[in-house]
Design a protein that fits this description.
This protein is an alpha+beta fold. It has three helices and seven strands; from the N terminus they run αβββββββαα. Strand 6 and strand 7 form a beta hairpin.
Length: 258
């Protein structure tokens, strides 16, 4: 008989993130207390059906070498627990084109600390649009493409800095980010039906008013035409036949000769 397997300790699953953190610390990965977040609500279009807008990590990586590369890691909500920081960007294991079916997370928007100056430049663009590149979405030669996100999510992001191609500094994961979903055609019709009665009544009233206005305009035109024809018309005078008379002149008769 096989020995009965011991039940897994309930706290084993909760200890996994702590073990990953200790392992990352052992490899020299520093974690800073910064959580990426969406940009200010004053900016329109923070989330769309395939993009979202983040605040740039200004004044976050203070002691980072200038040649270090800062990457944005985009992952599904479930993949954040077991994310492996040793996966290098630009590889099939972190390619955007395989996300999220075969790859739970990808890396994109790589830059250096020089593009995240501190303090913020007045009037400068301090946001990152995630998912804005459409030209490279299907190009497997560009695995770090910042392509449109394939669904509503939710997603989580964090920044990871690589020094000498090795993980050096990372931030916390953001809160779950859910994108907008297109409304089904059935729901759109249902929403319109609630206002159909009012719209029909309003349309009927406007149609009646327009018909009355049009009838009045036609009546005014007809009346004006009749008035003008009555005042300006005249009867053509009949032709008058004038007879010519020859005048009979009376000539003096010569005096009778005696």
């Amino acid at each position: 008989l096989r020995p009965h397997s011991r039940p897994r300790h309930p706290g084993a699953r909760t200890m996994l993130p702590l073990l990953l953190l200790l392992l990352a610390t052992a490899h020299g990965l520093e974690k800073i207390g910064y959580k990426p977040a969406l940009a200010s609500s004053d900016l329109g279009g923070l989330t769309t059906a395939s993009t979202f807008t983040l605040e740039q990590p200004r004044c976050v990586f203070k002691e980072l070498p200038e040649d270090a590369v800062i990457w944005l890691v985009v992952a599904t909500d479930r993949a954040t627990v077991n994310f492996n920081t040793s996966v290098k960007p630009g590889t099939p294991e972190s390619a955007f084109q395989q996300f999220p079916t075969h790859v739970p997370a990808y890396m994109t928007l790589n830059t250096t600390i020089l593009n995240y100056p501190c303090p913020k430049t007045p009037g400068g663009i301090t946001v990152l649009r995630v998912g804005s590149e459409t030209s490279c979405a299907g190009d497997e030669t560009r695995p770090t493409c910042n392509g449109p996100l394939p669904g509503p999510g939710p997603y989580r992001v964090k920044f990871l800095a690589l020094a000498d191609s090795k993980p050096s500094v990372e931030t916390d994961w953001s809160e779950p980010i859910t994108l907008r979903s297109a409304q089904p055609s059935g729901s759109i019709a249902a929403m319109g039906s609630r206002h159909s009665a009012g719209m029909i009544a309003l349309t009927s009233i406007l149609s009646i008013l327009f018909a009355i206005l049009l009838a009045g305009l036609v009546a005014m035109l007809v009346w004006g035409s009749d008035a003008c024809s009555g005042s300006g018309s005249f009867n053509k005078p009949e032709a008058v036949t004038v007879r010519r008379y020859n005048t009979h002149h009376a000539y003096d008769q010569p005096a009778a000769r005696l």
